[in-house]
Structure to design on (934 residues):
């Protein structure tokens, strides 16, 4: 039998399995311990997961919502500006070429298509061209006179036509009658005398063109060019840039020659030639140009790329892009557009809205940070005994921090990922990187708050806990210096905001929050003083509950700096945000009221209203009251060439309306004509209500006012008001209509009041007349002009609601933090003979002083913060379609925004201890004490 040699064993190979087994043995107890702690604190883990998920979702949703509203606002602005302004129009006039054939060749489809590719390639991102709507071809730049007498001539002037050989007509129109134009036989040249064309339905209807019509336009050094209409087409997308960049090709319009009378008008229309018929335009007087339109793709526009988009437009219009095109297409190439003006207007709107959004984001985000830190503090307090025991047994601070970090990360990281996913799904179509960064920041803060608070509390090993009430706690010098620093920073931020407005730095955006911080620090220092004074004053009272409650409240740390900071900051932010929303609503309502003059307005601009119309309108449902007025727009004061609107009214009814609407209320007796039925003359001037500018310019009179029919009245200004219901504007005169001539006293305007006016019924009643109907509610909704405005308003509402929610969470965390001490105290007192009702009163009275001080402090802080910050906040940009519609859209205090959050804090702060007292009474004192011992 042969013995096989045994290979030598490597010592490292023997040690490796042993190390793997030891590492596995270490990991298994660690995982088991982690699972055990998660099961032991299941409720706390679920609450933390919900808090982190909600906060991460809000943090991730904010930048995505801003992006979405910004994108929608930019796209709406470009769409409303119409393609003739937003399209970049590149054109080349006819240059000097060696031969006529070369010029004709440049106008044929092949070279035009090749040049178009160069133009589109030159457009830099984010200016993305809409290929389907970017038209190109050859057109006349001078309208050609049509000599055909059968074309309509409104004032005797012949019709003028623009001829265009626009490419790809078949893809952008369907045939309504006939066929599309084409060329037959030899290629079209400058000597061609007959071409085919198509017209749109609107052009055919207004100019009386039919299939087969012959139109003659003047030629150069030859006979006229004959254009035969072979088809009538219907645009597939008439609002698109293909048809609207040159609207005359789609819809004819009445035009007027410079220097002629306003009534000397003529029709200006367009004829669409075959795509390869461009050379025929060389034989006309139309000065044909080659053109390439670059229509921006609205769906590709992004609000955050406005600056880059403006740079790309500038480069294509007058920068490197156009220089490059001149080198490859033609040296005489030019580009023009008004898209840059549209972008400037949008950027101006956004620059007024973004600072207000930043104010809301900073306030709510800071509250979220405070609540997450408080949640970590509550968790550290709940496990204080366990962590102290671990430290006493030799656990190191780094090891303890890593252990707690792992426990928290197991809960917070999935919750943060869930919140981020929810934000991405709910708000698609926006950038992901800012949302990811915001959710990551929330998750990291949630993971680190608990370990850091625990490490800070257990830096040294203690045999027992120190007293934490206000008897032993004294502010340190470091705290004093820190508070003074915060006070200086807050004062600087408020001063800058008042002086420069809300468009400053992030420090300025934190001004409302810093106001709450300063108030919280002051209240945290000062609130024990009145409590101790009350405690000393009640020591001689008979009974136990009130003195004990005040003594406990004066010493208890229940409203420490961090919870108090959260509450006051939340109340200040909620008051500020609620006042912003209320101010936006008030500004829109005031602007609508100034424009309409009442809840509704029926007005004729061509003369008096029919005599039966006022009675029909008065009987309509929803009309509470109606005031008649006769408004003359072109009354001319003596020695003046500028007209002033003159309104004739019934003084009593008009004074009642002005007082009800709050527009220049006045005393009816001061406006009433003394001699009823007489016209105001030099010896009996009419009392008049005037605007400040009219009173300053013409004086108080008496002076004569010339009426359009040649009559005149003498007026004397007796009252001056900034606004009046009958006239919109800064210039007006209001007199008693009884003193006006009969023709001038005709009713032209009906001013209506009522909360449920029906616009459809009013328009139906005014149908068949020249009267227009205006409603205050419709005018108010018109001021929400941009998705950027409506989106900012919604974001502000969500921020205020989130801030209120975080304030309640801060209060709940404060209650949970002190709940074990209160329960143990109540149980000990119950063993000494205190009844259940006394225990409830004790806990309520213990929490009432601090809750009342916090609510009152929040109320005063919110009021003071709004008063301090209102000069630097202008709400016109976010509230109105045009900031000039209302002057002085400033921030004002909203009572509900101040009172409701403060009352909610007070009720919750008092209701939670009452509920705890009731629950503790059911559990029993012995069980409560045993739970406290645990």
């Amino acid at each position: 039998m042969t013995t096989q040699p045994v290979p030598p064993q490597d010592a490292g190979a023997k040690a490796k399995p042993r190390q793997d087994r030891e590492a596995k043995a270490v990991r298994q107890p660690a995982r088991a311990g982690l699972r055990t702690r998660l099961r032991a604190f299941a409720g706390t883990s679920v609450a933390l997961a919900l808090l982190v998920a909600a906060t991460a979702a809000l943090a991730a949703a904010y930048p995505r919502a801003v992006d979405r509203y910004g994108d929608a606002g930019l796209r709406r602005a470009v769409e409303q500006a119409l393609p003739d302004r937003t399209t970049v129009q590149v054109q080349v006039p006819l240059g000097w070429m060696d031969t006529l054939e070369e010029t004709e060749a440049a106008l044929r489809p092949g070279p035009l298509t090749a040049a178009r590719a160069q133009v589109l390639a030159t457009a830099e991102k984010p200016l993305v061209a809409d290929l389907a709507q970017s038209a190109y071809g050859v057109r006349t730049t001078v309208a050609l006179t049509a000599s055909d007498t059968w074309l309509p001539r409104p004032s005797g002037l012949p019709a003028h036509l623009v001829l265009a050989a626009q490419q790809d007509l078949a893809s952008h129109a369907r045939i309504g009658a006939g066929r599309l134009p084409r060329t037959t036989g030899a290629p079209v040249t400058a000597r061609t005398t007959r071409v085919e064309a198509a017209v749109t339905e609107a052009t055919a209807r207004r100019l009386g063109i039919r299939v087969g019509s012959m139109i003659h336009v003047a030629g150069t050094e030859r006979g006229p060019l004959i254009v035969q209409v072979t088809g009538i087409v219907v645009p597939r997308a008439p609002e698109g840039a293909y048809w609207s960049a040159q609207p005359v090709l789609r819809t004819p319009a009445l035009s007027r020659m410079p220097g002629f009378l306003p009534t000397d008008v003529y029709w200006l229309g367009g004829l669409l030639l075959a795509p390869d018929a461009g050379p025929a335009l060389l034989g006309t007087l139309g000065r044909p140009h080659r053109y390439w339109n670059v229509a921006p793709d609205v769906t590709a526009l992004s609000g955050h790329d406005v600056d880059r988009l403006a740079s790309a437009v500038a480069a294509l219009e007058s920068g490197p892009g156009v220089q490059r095109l001149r080198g490859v297409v033609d040296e005489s190439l030019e580009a023009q557009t008004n898209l840059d003006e549209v972008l400037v207007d949008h950027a101006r709107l956004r620059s007024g809205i973004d600072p207000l959004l930043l104010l809301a984001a900073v306030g709510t985000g800071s509250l979220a940070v405070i609540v997450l830190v408080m949640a970590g503090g509550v968790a550290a307090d709940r496990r204080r005994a366990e962590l102290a025991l671990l430290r006493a047994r030799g656990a190191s601070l780094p090891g303890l921090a890593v252990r707690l970090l792992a426990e928290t990360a197991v809960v917070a990281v999935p919750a943060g990922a869930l919140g981020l996913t929810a934000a991405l799904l709910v708000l698609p179509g926006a950038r992901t990187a800012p949302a990811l960064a915001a959710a990551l920041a929330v998750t990291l803060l949630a993971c680190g708050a608990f370990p850091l608070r625990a490490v800070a509390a257990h830096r040294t090993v203690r045999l027992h806990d120190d007293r934490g009430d206000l008897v032993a706690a004294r502010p340190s010098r470091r705290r004093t210096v820190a508070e003074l620093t915060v006070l200086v920073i807050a004062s600087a931020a408020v001063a800058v905001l008042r002086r420069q407005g809300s468009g400053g730095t992030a420090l300025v955006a934190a001004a409302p929050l810093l106001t709450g911080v300063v108030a919280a620090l002051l209240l945290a220092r000062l609130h024990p003083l009145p409590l101790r004074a009350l405690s000393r004053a009640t020591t001689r009272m008979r009974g136990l509950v009130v003195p004990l409650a005040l003594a406990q409240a004066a010493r208890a740390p229940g409203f420490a700096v961090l919870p108090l900071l959260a509450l006051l900051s939340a109340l200040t932010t909620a008051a500020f945000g609620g006042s912003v929303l209320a101010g936006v609503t008030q500004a829109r309502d005031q602007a609508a009221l100034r424009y309409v003059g009442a809840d509704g307005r029926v007005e004729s601009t061509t003369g008096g209203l029919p005599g039966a119309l006022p009675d029909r309108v008065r009987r309509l449902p929803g009309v509470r009251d109606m005031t008649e007025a006769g408004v003359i727009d072109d009354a001319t004061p003596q020695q003046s060439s500028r007209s002033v609107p003159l309104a004739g009214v019934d003084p009593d009814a008009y004074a009642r309306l002005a007082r009800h609407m709050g527009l220049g209320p006045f005393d009816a007796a001061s406006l009433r004509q003394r001699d009823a039925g007489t016209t105001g003359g030099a010896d009996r001037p009419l009392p008049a209500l005037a605007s400040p500018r009219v009173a300053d310019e013409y004086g108080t009179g008496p002076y004569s006012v010339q009426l359009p029919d040649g009559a005149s009245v003498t007026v004397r200004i007796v009252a001056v008001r900034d606004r009046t219901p009958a006239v919109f504007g800064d210039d007006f005169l209001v007199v008693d209509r009884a003193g006006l001539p009969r023709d001038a006293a005709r009713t032209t305007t009906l001013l209506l009041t009522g909360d449920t006016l029906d616009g459809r019924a009013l328009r139906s009643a005014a149908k068949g007349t020249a009267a227009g109907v205006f409603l205050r509610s419709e005018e108010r909704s018109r001021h929400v002009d941009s998705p950027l405005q409506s989106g900012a308003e919604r974001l502000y509402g969500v921020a205020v609601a989130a801030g209120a929610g975080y304030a309640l969470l801060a209060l709940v965390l404060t209650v949970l933090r002190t709940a074990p001490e209160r329960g143990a105290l109540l149980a000990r007192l119950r063993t000494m003979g205190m009844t259940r009702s006394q225990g409830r009163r004790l806990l309520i009275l213990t929490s009432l002083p601090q809750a009342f001080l916090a609510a009152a402090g929040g109320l005063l802080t919110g009021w003071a913060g709004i008063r301090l910050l209102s000069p630097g906040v202008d709400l016109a940009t976010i509230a109105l379609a045009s900031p000039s519609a209302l002057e002085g859209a400033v921030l004002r205090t909203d009572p509900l925004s101040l009172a409701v959050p403060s009352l909610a804090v007070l009720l919750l702060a008092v209701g939670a201890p009452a509920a705890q007292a009731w629950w503790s009474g059911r559990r029993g004192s012995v069980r409560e004490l045993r739970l406290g011992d645990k």
